[in-house]
Amino acid sequence: EVEVLRTRGIRNYALLLSSFFLVMPFLLHKFLDQIPKLGLSDRSNEEEVPWSTRLAYRVDVVFSSFSYVKPLALLLATLVLIVVGGLALYAVSQDSIWDAFWRAWTYVADSGNHADNIGFGPRFVSVCISLGGLLIFALMLGLVSDAISEKVDSLKKGKSEVIESNHTLVLGWSDKLGSLLKQLAIANQSLGGSIVVVLAERDKEQMEIDIAKLEFDFMGTSVICRSGSPLIMADLKKVSVSKARSIIVLAEVENADQSDARALRVVLSLAGVKEGLKGHVVVELSDIDNEPLVKLVGGEMVETVVAHDVIGRLMIQCARQPGLAQIWEDILGFDNAEFYIKRWPQLDGLNFKDVLISFPDAVPCGVKAASNGRILLNPEDDYILLEGDELLVIAEDDDTYAPAPVPKVRAGPLPKVMSHRKYPEKVLFCGWRRDMDDMIMVLEAFLAQGSELWMFSEVPEHERETKLLDGGLDPQSLFNIKLVHREGNAVIRRHLESLPLETFDSILILADEALEESVVKADSRSLATLLLIRDIQSKRLPYKETKTVQIRQAGSSHTSWIREMEQASNKSIIISEILDSRTRHLVSVSKIGDYVLSNELVSMALAMVAEDKQINRVLEELFSEEGNELYIRTAALYLYDQEELNFYEVMIRARQRHEIIIGYRPAAAERAIINPPNKAERRTWSIEDVMVAVAEEE
Fold first, then answer.
1. For residues 577 and 598, is the Cβ–Cβ distance under 8 A?
2. CATH number of this structure's domain 168-300, picked from the four choices 3.40.50.150, 1.10.238.10, 3.40.50.720, 1.10.3210.10
3. What CATH architecture does domain 1-26+53-157 belong to?
4. pTM, full prediction
5. What is the pLDDT of residues 155-189, one digit of tens each?
6. Cα Rg for the chain, rounded, in angstroms?
7. Residue 84: in which H helix or E strand, if any?
8. H or E stretch at 481
9. For residue 398, what pLDDT is reported?
10. 96-134 pLDDT, tens per residue?
11. How far is CA 68 from the centre of its chain?
């Protein structure tokens, strides 16, 4: 009986203890705010904060600061429920204390387990424990759901880390990205594809949607998008910047100086990566004046491509040589033949003349000297390849060519062709570019003395000289060309009709400086100007046919295809600067003679330099007015009409003019063939054919 009384006392004590645990939270909530009023606070002159508010604040801070607090709190609540419920069950039933704890756990884990209880007390306690278990289970589901949702949102927003190496990293977003991704995919097609990671300050889902709209087969290349800023080190580490084999910094669509300033900050961020960079950095700049500063900060790891300067020089080259834009598209793009640099030890000791005809599937164009690391384009025939020298070639892919034994080639004399002196030309610029001073200097180097450059734009005439002087050009110092200024709007017909459009040898329609931040508006203006000029010229066709065409044919060695490109339905050569590739189809409908696709060509150059930084030296020389360039030559300079020769023999004959023939265009064909196959196969040539050569200006 004493034992029974003792057991009953313990059970009553357990009931009181469990009741106390149940009532205590309500008592704290009721009387907690009364504690400061009892004199426990010594800050009598300050406004008191209630204890309940303080406690709620502390709980909120802890839950916000530590992600593991929520599951720990849920675990603690479960243990408290099991302990309190177990004590209550022990008090109202005949179970031992440990059996009561176990039953409490089963009620928490499965609310249906209490159905077999008998008696009011056990049933009431078991129902309360089961309700608490349901609440805990609901909280647990909420925590799991929140964790999963947070992880999914993190993946959607591009916050997860990229675990890749030897990938190509693109920093920034612009309208060039589509063309750039296409070229990178084609470049890595032979390897089965590669990884391209894009980090930009845009929503990850929107980036993926925009890339999906490209409707382009990436041929095994995977594009991974991440949202973040290239200026934040944590975001750079998130995309494994230190393990990337190349990094491309795109220019933003904004003011040129602001875009270049941002590019400079990105280069500074990259230079501050503690782990160092595995690959090189290719930076797209908008203004050539900012190039020295970026190179100073980045050092040898940085290669720059100044988009505006490249397109300006290319427009002038295409104006002088119609059809050159197509040649550049073929060489810069990875679709056809492109530049590669590789070492071939078996060629050591050979002279360049023999090396030139040693590749059935490539065309050697230069040598990278081991002595100084410089790339020598179009070297002398007697240049001997030394140990360590690498060869620059044009080939379809880096694994599609290899040297073969030097073939026996019959070298013949060059035809005797009268050399024609350069005649003065008349060129029209429609619009005003930021680098107008640089374009004028390039034109000054190319044109003959007595040439005229007409400048037609809305920029007031008194401001033009100031702009040119600010750019470092004194108009009075020009020797070969004379500047003629006209003010007007290039999309107003009566303004264009005031110009002698039928007398110009070349017309360059420039993307106006005022509209360069809006690609669509700039292209719309260029296209409208193009159509107006075509229409005005068609009304003045007789004058053009009787005078200008005869002058050009008398003073030029161009063949029928080139004359056809020049005349373009008996009109001047018109080079239009097109920024958006989507405008390409509109330009083709207008039957333009030649055009430059700015963004696509710049994307091609960026991709090529990203794949091999050494190629940037080659492009810089080919784009400049000094040194070697790409030329379109008439076949009459190298062979006789209907003469049978193979391509090797044509190449050897061209060496007598110190030129390298990299391709040709048959008279009846629409496109040139760069790095032609079957070079040893003989064919009948026509003087109407056209050769594509790497040469210095005559």
1. yes
2. 3.40.50.720
3. Orthogonal Bundle (1.10)
4. 0.76
5. 666 677 888 999 999 999 988 888 899 999 988 88
6. 39
7. helix 69-92
8. strand 481-487
9. 85
10. 778 888 878 887 777 666 666 776 777 777 778 788 888
11. 41
